[in-house]
Write a structure and sequence with these properties.
Elements lengths: L1 E7 L3 H12 L3 E8 L6 H14 L7 E3 L14 H4 L21 H11 L4 E5 L4 H9 L9 E5 L15 H5 L1 H9 L4 E4 L1 H4 L3 E3 H8 L3 H22 L3 E3 L2 H9 L4 E3 L2 E2 L1 E3 L10 E3 L16 E3 L2 E2 L3 H11 L5
Parallel strand pairs: 1-2, 1-4, 2-3, 4-5, 5-6, 6-13
Antiparallel strand pairs: 7-8, 9-14, 10-13, 11-12
The structure holds beta-D-ribofuranose and calcium ion.
GO biological process, one term: purine nucleoside catabolic process
Protein name: Nucleoside hydrolase
InterPro entries: Inosine/uridine_hydrolase_dom, IUNH, Ribo_hydro-like
């Protein structure tokens, strides 16, 4: 099984990614970090613990991380997308166990050092915790299997500015540090996550499943309404974060993913937070780029949405 540490700003699609990683037989989930982003970090931590409880994974340690971007700017949350509780306004207040007595960055360093060469880091929120872990342990890039992240966009518009995707735009300095470090990176950005859609039929299949599926169906409702009103014109939503998990686990059917240079724009102008992806090789079948270490997903099979829904709906469901 693929050893993995998730790092999330839990959020609705993050909750699904956690369920998927926690339940997938090909994934060994070593730990989860919480980071500010969709919601503040105490709420992201609570939601992460709650979701792991729901799938019976109280064995997975959850560590709380950064409350604001690296430079200390005021954090901007996305409650309008994810609801006041980060769970589409449909979460519950069931008690949760305490978080681990360590920071998310420290937890990354410890778990990676315990399994050198084996661990995939899977950040699906702003990259603040990952950049902090890098600063704590500059040898990290040589010690991980890789980093599979949800974020950025190569040839699609952004979702928070014309060119920037939320996870990168929220902390461009952290993202720049992560993309500069010499570890293998897999970027699941909007190029693919805008194409892998959860429909009302998926929601209904979840609602007919076990406790985790029913919870996910409930929290998806508001998220799909946001996407209906702001993006698609009908009730459906992007699966986003689960794609990074599936890519790290090697269970995503990838159709086009060149290995190219990626830089993050950290200027103060209209490009801030953009992933500048060098796709100039497109006319020649993407020849190798010297020193490039970022695999940018450009086309994937969207049946991963069905597989994820079935996995989660099936957990604890009556036969
Ligand atoms: C990303 O931003 C967050 O709202 C989602 O959880 C996802 O990680 C999409 O741009
Ligand atoms: Ca997220």
């Amino acid at each position: 099984a693929t050893k993995m540490i998730l790092d999330c700003d839990t959020g609705v699609d993050d909750a699904m990614a956690i369920m998927y990683a926690a339940l997938h037989p090909g994934i060994e989930l070593l730990g989860v970090g919480a980071v500010w982003g969709n919601v503040d970090v105490p709420l992201a931590t609570r939601n992460t613990l709650r979701v792991l409880d729901l799938v019976g994974r109280t064995d997975v340690p959850v560590a709380s991380g950064a409350a604001a971007p690296l430079l200390g700017d005021r954090p901007e949350f996305a409650f309008h997308v994810h609801g006041a509780d980060g769970q589409g306004g449909a979460g519950d207040d069931a008690p949760v166990r305490p978080a681990a007595p360590t920071t998310a960055a420290q937890q990354i360093v410890e778990l990676v050092r315990a399994h050198p060469g084996e661990v995939w880091l899977v950040p699906v929120g702003p990259l603040t915790n990952i950049a902090t872990a890098l600063a704590l342990d500059p040898e990290l890039p040589g010690l991980v299997a890789g980093v599979a992240l949800m974020g950025g966009s190569a040839r699609r518009p952004g979702n928070v500015t014309p060119v920037a995707e939320a996870n990168i735009h929220k902390d461009p300095e952290a993202a720049a540090a992560v993309f500069r470090a010499p570890w293998p990176i897999v970027m699941a950005g909007l190029d693919v996550t805008m194409d892998v859609i959860l429909t009302a039929e998926h929601r209904d299949r979840l609602a007919a499943g076990g406790e985790a599926g029913r919870y996910l169906a409930r929290i998806l409702q508001h998220y799909g309404e946001f996407y209906r009103d702001e993006v698609f014109g009908e009730w459906q939503c992007c699966m986003h974060d689960t794609l990074a998990v599936a890519a790290a686990a090697g269970v995503l059917d990838v159709r086009l993913a060149p290995v190219v240079h990626v830089e993050v724009d950290t200027t103060a102008g209209p490009g801030r937070g953009q992933t500048v992806v060098d796709l100039r090789g497109v006319y020649r079948g993407f020849p190798a780029q010297h020193g490039a270490h970022c695999t940018v997903l450009l086309d994937v099979d969207d049946r991963i949405a069905d597989e994820a829904v079935d996995l989660i709906a099936g957990h604890g469901a009556l036969p």
